[in-house]
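FAQ: What does the model actually see?

It sees only this:
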Amino acid sequence: MALLVACTVIYRDDLAERLLNKQRSPQYTGVRIPMIKSWPANQEMWNEYANLRRQVQNEEIDGNAANSFYLENKSEMDEGSEVYWEDRIEPGFSTALEAAMASYFDDPRSFMAEKQNTPNEELDSLFTPLSATSIASRQGVYAKSDLPHDCQYITTHIDVQQEVLFYMTVGWSSSFGGHILNYGSWPKQGRLYYGVRDLPKPLKDHPKYKGLDPDGRMRAVIKDCIEYMSTREYTNKDTGETMFLNRGFIDARYKSTQVEQAIIESPHKGMWVPAWGVGIGAKDTPLKLRQGLRGQHGRHWVIQKPKDRLLRGVFVDTNYWKSECYNALKIPIDHSHAIKLPKVAGPSIHQMVADHFCSERMVRVEAKGRTIDEWELPSSKPDNHFWDNLVGCMVAASTLGLAKANEMPVKTQQENRRRKRNVRFK
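And it is asked to produce this:
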């Protein structure tokens, strides 16, 4: 008796994949039929197509812009590609390849499972405690890199990943309201939306860092990013006032030694601090009560130099500060404590950062007489790097002495030294 099973691999190790596995199901002769047999070689043009398509979907530009771009560059964009069924052309598209690539850009996870039969569970969906759509539209009156008139401090945070750096710069008012001045990745990826697991331009392929070992490459790219952030000038277009970065944090949980060495070798090392985030839950001992943390204490952060480290670092209670960022994104945009995104042509430009801001969920936990809002990533592990950036920028502003009106400002080390020098004994 012959048996034919027509199936789709939706999840790793589901029944369909087990039937296709020769070792697990030797009695079956399985064939995976992907929609795209060979991916196109010109990634840059397809990235531009993805950007145009996202803007079309948000009704920001003409509805035929993406298709017109493809037709104008068809020969270059088709190069190296092969689809399984050339005649499968869906309405609104010119070729089967264009339809397939559009489907991939719209929903990579579903496409890889249902149309390629090679599911990537790392592209899973995510739970959003905030509305990503609302955040993408939460724009102030200032464009990217424009200095707000009430800016008191500028802070930056760099999140270090194996093949890319994510960064964000925020300008802070005296009332602890934040205006995001800039954000992005190093190196630039060329697409409005991408994930750390599907980077168009990973560090290992960057020509500037070719030939370097992984540690040397990481140190070099961090130094380049530090130089860029430290020398960037922000200008208020109405008054002509200019400002530079006041303080930068670099997440040191990954490649800690390379982070510290990059800071030490930079001419701007005085404004940069390695940062370690600690999720302190209801069952854990608060930072201020932990033995061995005897440096400069602030609002749920401590700056000190551990014996086994090269530099002073900041240790942050991330649960507390994520709740602070959450509240600043939840309150009305005109509130004095609100965080705003820069003004752009359309919300699709901010969609990726908005999804990062919505990547984690908050759970209220009671233990040992304490009630703490604890933050966690869902099992799908969505990208949260810009969320970490925003949290780091807010903590950096706090370490500079910034506080809300109802909070006691934290004295910086310079202020403490000044106060000690003014003491007089009779």
